[in-house]
Each structure stands twice: as structure tokens, then as C-alpha cells.
Automatic annotation (TrEMBL):
This is Uncharacterized protein. It comes from Rotaria socialis. Residues 1-31 are annotated as: Disordered. It comes from the Eukaryota.
Length: 31
């Protein structure tokens, strides 16, 4: 549950590209 939120925060961080990819990866694993 927290992985998605952390991914969103990561996207807003300095490395937005990696954060976005991490968020998608976490979402895929959850679904």
C-alpha cells in the first residue's frame, strides 16, 4: 500500500523519471 505513495513522492523528487518507473513497477506487482 505504501509503495504506491512512496513512488508518487519519488516522482516529485529529483529523479522523477526513476520514481515514475518505480511507481509503475510497484503497481504492477500489486495487481
Amino acid at each position: 500500500s505504501g509503495s504506491v505513495l512512496k513512488g508518487a513522492e519519488g516522482a516529485e523528487g529529483a529523479e522523477g523519471a526513476e520514481g515514475a518507473e518505480g511507481a509503475e513497477g510497484a503497481h504492477r506487482k500489486m495487481c
